[in-house]
Amino acid sequence: MTATPPAVELHVHVEGTLEPELIMALAERNRVELPYADLDDLRARYAFTDLSHFLDLYYANMAVLREAEDFATMTRAYLERAARAGVRHVELFVDPQAHLARGVGVPVVLEGVSAGLADAPAGMTTGLIPCFLRDRPAEEADEVLDALLASGVPLLGVGLDSAEAGNPPGRFADVFARARAAGLRLVAHAGEEGPAAYVREALDVLGVERVDHGIRALEDQALVTRLAEEAVPLTVCPLSNVRLRAVRTLAAHPLPLMLGAGLAVSVHSDDPAYFGGYVDDNHRAVMEALHLTRAQVHTLASNAVEAAFVDDTRRAELR
Ligand code: HPA
Ligand code: ZN
């Protein structure tokens, strides 16, 4: 079966594209001491037990990102890889708060990532979606939103990520309302490790237009019916789900169930440098492991195009 090329990537964290080789190179460039003997020692730490275990390494490795140029380098490397996968539109997550503790301010992060995006390969469109960290105080998210809006860097939307269990979305209602008033699109991670109730709360309290992951929505039949009726896009990341043990194996992934329930699911990569593959790898892996039909593969690709925050002209080009 020929694969439909994954034209649209809607769920990728730029810091999650930091490949081990680039971590080592940036550590040298910035004279940052890493607690790893060598590349193999770093690679040996990628066997995760859950989301928090992954997040510990993900945040620790960000120590090598110091200057705007580091963020630009990382972003350019990702876009080149995405172009090789056939991606023509990217909505890129970034975690500004994750850099504040090292004294790397919001303007440096945004300036660097947006400089990288400005060098996107010909024919590729991009948008930037900073995410608030749900395991940090809502007041901090409020300050970060001020800094985001003051930066002058064009933003597509805001999201919500980091450790989900015990961190329901509702605390961020005010900051999401402010972001919406500022004209930003709204998304949130929900139902990755957290319960279906968090998906409901993200929709009802934050007013998100798209849900990142959402696999645990399947535990609530009324919610599934609503998500299908309202055609709420769910950006599913199969290799991530397996590596973070949200799902036992790829062959046991609920993607076919979600498609069968009429949910607007699409397939994405999350943190490709950590989870064993970019969006093309994720598509190939689910096609093989789940024996998807040609029609199902087409639906996944088409759902991604329909879920993108683009105007009608661009959507028609991506179809
Ligand atoms: N889940 C939640 N937060 C994240 C992730 C993820 O998979 N990757 C980066 N931040
Ligand atoms: Zn994610």
Automatic annotation (TrEMBL):
<keyword id="KW-0479">Metal-binding</keyword>
<comment type="function">
    <text>Catalyzes the hydrolytic deamination of adenine to hypoxanthine. Plays an important role in the purine salvage pathway and in nitrogen catabolism.</text>
</comment>
<comment type="similarity">
    <text>Belongs to the metallo-dependent hydrolases superfamily. Adenosine and AMP deaminases family. Adenine deaminase type 2 subfamily.</text>
</comment>
<dbReference type="InterPro" id="IPR028892">
    <property type="entry name" value="ADE"/>
</dbReference>
<feature type="domain" description="Adenosine deaminase">
    <location>
        <begin position="6"/>
        <end position="319"/>
    </location>
</feature>
<feature type="binding site">
    <location>
        <position position="13"/>
    </location>
    <ligand>
        <name>Zn(2+)</name>
    </ligand>
</feature>
<feature type="binding site">
    <location>
        <position position="189"/>
    </location>
    <ligand>
        <name>Zn(2+)</name>
    </ligand>
</feature>
<keyword id="KW-0378">Hydrolase</keyword>
<dbReference type="Pfam" id="PF00962">
    <property type="entry name" value="A_deaminase"/>
</dbReference>
<dbReference type="InterPro" id="IPR032466">
    <property type="entry name" value="Metal_Hydrolase"/>
</dbReference>
<protein>
    <recommendedName>
        <fullName>Adenine deaminase</fullName>
        <ecNumber>3.5.4.2</ecNumber>
    </recommendedName>
</protein>
<dbReference type="InterPro" id="IPR001365">
    <property type="entry name" value="A_deaminase_dom"/>
</dbReference>
<feature type="active site" description="Proton donor">
    <location>
        <position position="192"/>
    </location>
</feature>
<dbReference type="InterPro" id="IPR006330">
    <property type="entry name" value="Ado/ade_deaminase"/>
</dbReference>
<dbReference type="GO" id="GO:0016787">
    <property type="term" value="F:hydrolase activity"/>
</dbReference>
<keyword id="KW-0546">Nucleotide metabolism</keyword>
<keyword id="KW-0862">Zinc</keyword>
<feature type="binding site">
    <location>
        <position position="270"/>
    </location>
    <ligand>
        <name>Zn(2+)</name>
    </ligand>
</feature>
<feature type="binding site">
    <location>
        <position position="11"/>
    </location>
    <ligand>
        <name>Zn(2+)</name>
    </ligand>
</feature>
<feature type="site" description="Important for catalytic activity">
    <location>
        <position position="213"/>
    </location>
</feature>
<feature type="binding site">
    <location>
        <position position="271"/>
    </location>
    <ligand>
        <name>substrate</name>
    </ligand>
</feature>
